[in-house]
C-alpha cells in the first residue's frame, strides 16, 4: 500500500504515513459494545411469552364474550408486554378474517338454495 499524499510505500497496518504523517486509512475495525442480555435483565415489556402462555391466552380468547372483551383490551394496549399485545392483535385479525370468510360462505350457500327453490316452483 502506498501513501495517497506523498506516494511512498507504507508498512502493513500503519495508521499514518511515517514520512509525511498523512492518515493512511488503514484503521483497525471498530467493534461495537455487545451487552450481555439474559432473561433477568429484559424489560417487562419485552419479556417473551412461554408456549404454555400462548396456549392459555388462546383458550382465554376462545371464551365467547369474556374472551372477546379481553382480546380487544389486550389488542389496544391493555398490557405493557408487547409480545402479548402483538399476539392479541394477530388473533383479533384472524378472528375478523374468519368471520368474513364464514359470512361469504353462508351468503353463497343461502342464495344458491334460494334460487334453486325459485326455479323448482
TrEMBL record:
Keywords: Membrane, Transmembrane, Transmembrane helix. This is Zinc-ribbon domain-containing protein. Residues 2-23 form the Zinc-ribbon domain. It comes from Porcincola intestinalis. InterPro entries: Zinc_ribbon_dom. The keyword Transmembrane applies. It holds the Pfam family Zn_Ribbon_1. The chain crosses the membrane at residues 59-79, 91-115. It comes from the Bacteria.
Amino acid at each position: 500500500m502506498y501513501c495517497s499524499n506523498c506516494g511512498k510505500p507504507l508498512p502493513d497496518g500503519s495508521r499514518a504515513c511515517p514520512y509525511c504523517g498523512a492518515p493512511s486509512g488503514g484503521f483497525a475495525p471498530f467493534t461495537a459494545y455487545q451487552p450481555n442480555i439474559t432473561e433477568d435483565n429484559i424489560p417487562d415489556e419485552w419479556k417473551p411469552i412461554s408456549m404454555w402462555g400462548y396456549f392459555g391466552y388462546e383458550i382465554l380468547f376462545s371464551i365467547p364474550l369474556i374472551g372477546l372483551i379481553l382480546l380487544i383490551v389486550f389488542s389496544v394496549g391493555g398490557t405493557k408486554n408487547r409480545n402479548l399485545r402483538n399476539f392479541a392483535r394477530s388473533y383479533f385479525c384472524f378472528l375478523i378474517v374468519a368471520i368474513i370468510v364464514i359470512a361469504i360462505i353462508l351468503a353463497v350457500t343461502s342464495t344458491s338454495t334460494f334460487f334453486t327453490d325459485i326455479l323448482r316452483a
